[in-house]
Amino acid sequence: MTTATQPLLDYTALAAHSSGLAFLDSRGVTGEITYADLDTRARTAAAALHERGLRPGDRAVLPMPSSPDYFTVLAACLLAGVAPCTVVIPSNPQDVQSAGMRQFAAVLSVVRPAAVIAADEDTAKALAQVPGPLYLHPDDLRHAPPESVQPAIPGPDTVHHIQLTSGSTTAPKAATLTYAQVSANVNGIRTAFQLTPGHDRICNWLPLHHDMGFVVALTALHSGTPLDSMSPMGFLRDPLSWLRHISQRGATITSGPPFGYRTAVERYRRTPAQDLDLSRLRQAHVGAEPIPYSVLVDFRDTFAAHGLATDTLMPCYGMAETVLGATMSLKPYSATEHSWGRVKAVRLDREALHHHNTITPAHDDRPDITVVACGQPVGGLTAEIRHPDGTRCGDNEIGEIHLHGDSVMAGYLNPDGRPTPVPERTHATGDLGFHRDGDLYIVGRLKEMIVVRGRNLPPYDVEQTIETLPAVGAGNSAVFSHADNDGEHVIAVIETRTPADQAAALRLEIATLVRQSFGFTPREIILVRRGQIPRTTSGKRQRAQLRRQYLTGGLT
User: Fold this and answer.
1) Residues 327, 318: contact at Cβ < 8 Å?
2) CA–CA separation, 407 and 322 (whole Å)
3) Beta bridge partners of 59
4) Predicted confidence band of residue 147 (pLDDT cuts 50, 70, 90)
5) Cβ atoms < 10 Å from Cβ of 179
6) Per-residue confidence band for 1, with pLDDT thresholds at 50, 70 and 90
7) Are β-strands 283-286 and 253-256 bridged in parallel, bridged antiparallel, or unpaired?
8) Which strands form 134-136's sheet, in the order they lie side by side?
9) Contact, 217 vs 227, CB < 8 A?
10) DSSP structure class, residue 429
């Protein structure tokens, strides 16, 4: 429950903010809206939702890109008491059998929305091939007397929004997040950001179906901070445009996964930009996937000449199940070989860590891994490390991370539309970590989920896609990930009878298919004889054992 010192988020106060939102691509501003105009449009749209039959407690799925229309629909849902769920726009909505539409159908089966609100009429019609909800688009919501419905008055346990936590095409998990939980986390993030009215500006390129992109945007709305929302495609087209926008528009806060920071460095090294001024950027949050220490060092060293302060980079850890932020590196560290600004890391023996689950200092004659501290809890949370028997780990002991407190979700949605309660307000994350000197370090996962560019993917989704190739076939692949000093890498192992002279062509075909379907390319595609993937007696793929074989050189 919320407390008297923790007010619930209030979307009726948008008009009180004097700034607004800008929408950017790689070249510049594509649209703008003030918070006052957003308030007016959202109230009209909320009334239109009511006229269309939506009521408080309903849910709406929003397959929309960042735009004035998206934020209007989002605010309208929140004013109307309708819980929004922002999702990926299917890449080929005309083809109901495409991977994107299959994932969309899976989302609807879990979220069970009263309405789907798409970006335009054509998209709404294409998506309507999946029956069930009412299909709408922004033009349907522009004409209604805004005074015809009063904004819903939420309570602490009212559902604020639904956040998908995986990219599964079969059974995506949907975290149910209440006003009390979202308010606790957003207020914790706002405090961590140290937002100052009239001084700060937030610039982000993460998609709004991603919890980091979405909740940072909520923080901007809640605080009235100007928000520059850049399209992810604009960033991918020109990663340095992200930093140019920060420079030219005076942004003070940004966020992204390590992938984004790495990509910006790589582009700068190929085509340096001389006109960047990053001196006003005071917080750059790094999270959503394992954080390689080398990415932080490279970004610091590359952009120091452009005014980037040493304490700007802030490693973080979080997830949709805690709204967003769980821990953040808020305090400065003493400068040492592996510590500077708000970055702190330890260099460990890699074999002891990955194979024996122990924390052992690295030796120069053995493989090592540098692990980054992700800071201290925020948003009314505490972080515990537990042994498999549930007892607490001491400092420098590895165990599963359990997060407890105000920001922990109500639960995952069940088919009956209700969330499964979270026992004792504690979420067992499935992530492995340890505490040292008050900081949380992440070292791996109990679960087999792979994380690519901040997106959670079940390995079986990738495997099923690979197995559609005739040269592979059903059940003949296994996908896993592993981390080293360069980050997390996806490995695909394929059982095949393909002749050796056709192996290169098959690898290329697999790489192309995975890239087209999921937006990434496996680091390695290893072809093996049939029967080489380890399995249980019931035939289940043993990905953890396969990972161990790979790391010890046992895969040939």
Assistant:
1) yes
2) 5
3) 83
4) confident
5) 21
6) very low
7) parallel
8) 83-86, 59-62, 115-117, 134-136
9) yes
10) E
